[in-house]
Amino acid sequence: MSALLFYFQAAKSAMAWAACFLKGRRSFYGIIWEMKRETLEAEIRNVILSSVEVDGLTAEDLPSDVALFGDGVGLDSIDALEIGAALRKKYQVKFKANSDENREHFKTIASLASFIAANAGIELED
Q1: Were 91 and a residue from 64, 65, 80, 120 both cysteine, which residue would form a disulfide, CB within 3.0 to 4.6 Å?
Q2: How many CB atoms lie within 10 A of CB 117?
Q3: CATH second-level architecture of 33-125?
Q4: 83 and 102 Cβ atoms separated by less than 8 Å
């Protein structure tokens, strides 16, 4: 029995170290990673660009402080679902279904970065 417990502890430690070297930015067993805000926002831009199909949409069209939906970039609710699924997969964050808070989280790239940092164990450096 103690050999099995030892094996489990060793496997858990190995996974933590693997996450450190392979992912480098995720919270894993309480580890908090540091990242520049610009880097996280650039990653979010890439997730958005790979998740939605909007003709001619580029990273330059997605500044950090412009609204993603409505009069801003002009994304719709289907885009929000696709972006949310991609962000959930990449950062292991959870969005509450039918929540008014999601409107605030998805307002801009900067607000998404703040939400992801707070919920994925990322400490943002400005």
Answers
A1: 120
A2: 20
A3: Orthogonal Bundle (1.10)
A4: no
The residue written with tokens 């998404």 in the block is 112
Q: How far is the CA of 71 from the CAs of 35, 47, 60, 66, in angstroms?
A: 30, 21, 17, 9
In the chain, domain spans: 1-31, 33-125
The letter for the amino acid at 68 is L
Q: Which amino acid belongs to residue 23?
A: K
Q: Which residues of 30-60 are buried (b: 16+ CB within 10 A; e: fewer)?
A: eeebebebeebbbbbbebbeebbeeeeeeee
Q: Say which residues have a Cβ less than 8 Å from residue 103's Cβ, sequence separation at least 6.
A: none
Return the residue matching tokens 């949409």: 57
pLDDT score of 91 more than 80: yes
Rounded to the nearest integer, the mean pLDDT of the chain is: 81
Q: Residue written as tokens 């450096």?
A: 125
Residue 23 CB: number of other CB atoms within 10 A? Answer: 14
User: Minimum mean pLDDT among 1-15, 48-62, 89-103: which range?
Assistant: 1-15
pTM: 0.73
